[in-house]
Amino acid sequence: MTEPDPSKTTSKSIAFELGLIVAAGLVVTGVVVWWVTADRDRSLEPSGPTPARSNAAKTEHQALVESLVGDRACRECHPGECALHSRSGHSKTLRIGAAHNPVAKLSGAKFNDPEQKGVVWAYSVQGDKLTVERIENGKSDTFPIDFAFGSGHSGVTFVSVHMPTGRLGESVDLEHRVSYYANRKNFGITPGQEKGEKAEGLTPAGRVLPGDEVKSCFGCHTTINSTRGQEIVDSATMIPGIGCERCHGPGSEHIRLARAGKISIDQGDDRPRTTAAEEMLLCGQCHRHPDVISSKEIVAENAKIVRFQPVGLMQSKCYVKSDGNLRCSTCHDPHARASTNTLEYEQTCLSCHAGGDDKSKACSIEPKPINGCVRCHMPKRDAMHGLMYTDHWIRVRREAGDAAKAAYAAPSSPRSAAPIEPAKSIKKATVDPAIRSFFARMK
Ligand code: HEC
Ligand code: HEC
Ligand code: HEC
Ligand code: HEC
Ligand code: HEC
Ligand code: HEC
Ligand code: HEC
Predict the structure, then answer these.
(1) Of 38, 129, 339, 383, whose CB is crowded by the most CB atoms within 10 A?
(2) Per-10-residue mean pLDDT for the chain, 443 residues long?
């Protein structure tokens, strides 16, 4: 830590002296006892960069922050995208405090831990916060839930930050042991924490996130982590969820130009667009790009990469051989929830695979199918806990029988600890500096 924050030290030591507002005795690797207090400082300070670098980063981040206008400012001129986006997983993927639906409705719920005998997890809302009690033999430890990750479409994982360990000045971030699985409307063990997992930092209450990992969680689930810099997580100034400007960059200049009549609505279909490769980098920031995966992992049998859609898609001949005509937005509206209408996607397959030209071929089985393409060539696979993900590595699958099923066995939770940057401008909405902006091109 380069600049110790005095306010933080104070709040921590006050909490320490007042004793424990909520006492939590919990053995971490045999020795450390956590004392969870209600008035923790919820901002995480950087531990890495040198002062010079962090000052530079601050100015750049400051400029970014100042030109952000927020999703609501786009509504006036782009009501369609805004309406779709407000219902999407992107906009709802992180909740602060967790006293909102769907999380708040977990209040009163109890869950018997399937692996820790006699342990019950009890959820209740206290103040503006969902809290969970871990009850074992009449002894109870309480954990306030600071953040809920996941829109509730599939899984919701709780994270508590800055929990004092009981050693003065030491605190940890905790990924809770128990997650909520919306797909089966029940709680379950968080992926990667089940019996037999060898992840570092596993405790009876959850996984202590090593080093900066918690910052990377936020990096992929917020628009910005705080106004003070991406390396600081601060719930007071964070913009949770993936807003318009995370993908398109800050909007103030665009809106200024639009109001000045300098953006023509009538640009026709030939206005320059982001290329497929650029889109892979944009979406791949969070959905993972082959650049951040070891090439050894990129094999068809590795079920772990099923969740990494750009990685899979970019292995497909459809992507490689279609001259940049296939990208995520060919099949998905990036503003909306993924459609569950398979026939819609299959219309897209057929737009290239109707046969008849030499570029793309029709399906080679007889009689020639007119649908079912997704089921046979892009099936859903169990990535964990019955969470089914679509395998975006479009290919011919000859696997059959139990051996093939075993090859598709559940992986552990794929989560990169790499720091994730938000869009500094639309230009930098992607990880590749060469990428041109949506807005810049319209000037
Ligand atoms: C005052 C009106 C106005 C506001 C507010 C506005 N835009 Fe636009 N925007 C336009 C116009 C006009 C165009 C060009 C016509 C079109 O593509 O719809 C445009 C086009 C775009 C495009 C397409 C660019 C391209 O090359 O295809 C994106 C992306 C975009 N706006 C994003 C945003 C975002 C994000 C916000 C909020 C931060 C926003 N706009 C706010 C007027 C506005
Ligand atoms: C590299 C970016 C990235 C990082 C880092 C990351 N996530 Fe995610 N997360 C995603 C994406 C993308 C999804 C969308 C679902 C998918 O395709 O895996 C997602 C989905 C989720 C979901 C929804 C449930 C599900 O499994 O679909 C939860 C909960 C979640 N993440 C929690 C976390 C937590 C907690 C951390 C930190 C320990 C974390 N994520 C780190 C990108 C990331
Ligand atoms: C996950 C990234 C992402 C987010 C978040 C996002 N967009 Fe987009 N947006 C895209 C991509 C990619 C395209 C290009 C899609 C295409 O070419 O079909 C696009 C296209 C657009 C366009 C041009 C549409 C057209 O038909 O040319 C507008 C306008 C737009 N977005 C506005 C918004 C607004 C407003 C928001 C927030 C409510 C938003 N976007 C959020 C990725 C995103
Ligand atoms: C800043 C990180 C980030 C970026 C960039 C990003 N995503 Fe996502 N995406 C996520 C997370 C996190 C989720 C999980 C949302 C949830 O909790 O349900 C997600 C979910 C999705 C879903 C499932 C949505 C649903 O509700 O059914 C689709 C489809 C998707 N993303 C497509 C894209 C595409 C296409 C792009 C690029 C244009 C993109 N994403 C860029 C982080 C990101
Ligand atoms: C933008 C055009 C395009 C779209 C859309 C598209 N493909 Fe393809 N696909 C191609 C091209 C080009 C090839 C390579 C053909 C060749 O080998 O010359 C290909 C190859 C294939 C192959 C053979 C793969 C192999 O490894 O031999 C399959 C199977 C396939 N596509 C299925 C699909 C399915 C299913 C969909 C829809 C989910 C789809 N494609 C969407 C263009 C496309
Ligand atoms: C050829 C069509 C196609 C392309 C291209 C495509 N997807 Fe998908 N995607 C699908 C289908 C089909 C589904 C399954 C939808 C359903 O029925 O739930 C899906 C589902 C998803 C989901 C929801 C979770 C899941 O795995 O079921 C996410 C997230 C997603 N896609 C992200 C992406 C991203 C990111 C890209 C670009 C790298 C992309 N997709 C490109 C067809 C496509
Ligand atoms: C019942 C499963 C099934 C369905 C449904 C199906 N396919 Fe196939 N497809 C296969 C198999 C198996 C092969 C490989 C056949 C062989 O070469 O032995 C194949 C091959 C292909 C190829 C490679 C052709 C070549 O000459 O290399 C393409 C392209 C393709 N399918 C596209 C599609 C599209 C598009 C659809 C939907 C209209 C579709 N498939 C529906 C099972 C299926």
Answers:
(1) 383
(2) 32 25 27 27 40 57 92 96 96 85 85 96 88 93 92 90 83 94 88 88 93 91 93 93 94 92 66 84 95 91 90 97 95 96 96 76 88 94 78 82 35 36 34 28 27
Pocket test residue of 281, 293, 309, 319 for ligand 6, highest count of atoms within 8 A of CB: 309
In this structure, the residue with its CA closest to atom 2 of ligand 7 is 376
| Residue nearest (by alpha carbon) to ligand 3 atom 29 | 78
Q: How many angstroms separate the alpha carbon of residue 338 from the centre of ligand 6?
A: 7
Q: Give, in degrees to the nearest 5, the angle at Cα 343 between 181 and 336.
A: 50
Give the Å distance between the CA of 311 and the centre of ligand 6.
12
3-state secondary structure of 232: coil
DSSP result, 362-380: ---SSSPPSS-HHHHHS-E
User: How does DSSP assign 86-109, residue by residue?
Assistant: HTSHHHHSEEETB-STTTGGGTT-
Phi, psi of 263 (to 5 degrees): -115, 120
